[in-house]
Amino acid sequence: MHARRTALALTGTAIAVATAGAIALTAPAGASTSAGASGQSSQPSTISASTSPASTSPAAAACDRGPWADRVQGAPVGFTGGSRGGDYLWHDSTGFHLRVTHKSDDRQVYTGVLTASAPMRIDPVRLEAGDVARLSADHRSLIFAFANHGHIDGVNFHTDCALSLTVSHLNVGRSALTPDRVYLGITRAHPARIPFTVHRELS
């Protein structure tokens, strides 16, 4: 018997969640993609936990370590698997970090899109079979879908010299994630709305 799928229309991002199986994603319509010689956009590439990040220049690495807006700096105090359910996002000297968790051990699928003003590199963290972290062809959009069972799933990513990062299409299952379930930085600040954009701190 085929697993029943729930189709989630996220303003152009198609995310199909199997009730007993894997998660399938297609590229978001608004995500930045590069076009080939034919002028048609390439499909985004799936990044697995075994994929090493591409090499980067010393200047880009220095940018990646540089601080962003205060509200997103620093790991959230007391964050563990089974913390209050939602998306946790922060930046530190090693780059950006996105994690999801929730209090029970039932299956909850967290999905969303992160779009930077420059190409990104990613390092999946504690992903389970069927979880997805995918970059668009030009690496400016990261699409994720994590089937969480109360532990921690997530991805570390590097924005190098990007000046802004927009977070959008956040959902848990078929419901939109509310701002009070998004936690930013060391203080677990909430965004005023979704989508929202954070900016690099400029000296």
Detailed description of the structure:
This protein is mainly β and 203 residues long. Helices cover 4% and strands 40% of the residues. The protein has one helix and 15 strands. The strands form three sheets. Strands 4, 7, 9, 10, 12, 13 and 15 form a seven-stranded antiparallel sheet that branches. Strand 5 and strand 6 form a beta hairpin. The radius of gyration is 16 Å and the shape is globular.
Task: Tell me how many strands there are.
Answer: 15
Label the overall shape. globular
Determine Rg (CA atoms, Å): 16 Å
Report the β-strand fraction as a percent range: 35-45%
Terminal-residue CA separation: 58 Å
Order of helices and strands: EEEEHEEEEEEEEEEE
Count of alpha and pi helical runs: 1
* Major β-sheet annotation: 7 strands, antiparallel
Percent helix among the residues? Answer: under 10%
- Helix-and-strand structural type: mainly beta
Provide mean pLDDT, rounded. 78
Poorly predicted sequence stretches spanning 5 or more consecutive residues: 1-14, 16-23, 31-53
Furnish the topology, listing elements before pairings.
Blueprint: E1 5-10, E2 13-18, E3 23-25, E4 45-46, H1 58-65, E5 86-92, E6 95-101, E7 108-116, E8 121-125, E9 132-135, E10 141-148, E11 153-158, E12 164-172, E13 175-176, E14 182-184, E15 196-199
Parallel strand pairs: 5-14
Antiparallel strand pairs: 1-2, 2-3, 4-9, 5-6, 6-11, 7-10, 7-12, 8-11, 9-10, 12-13, 12-15
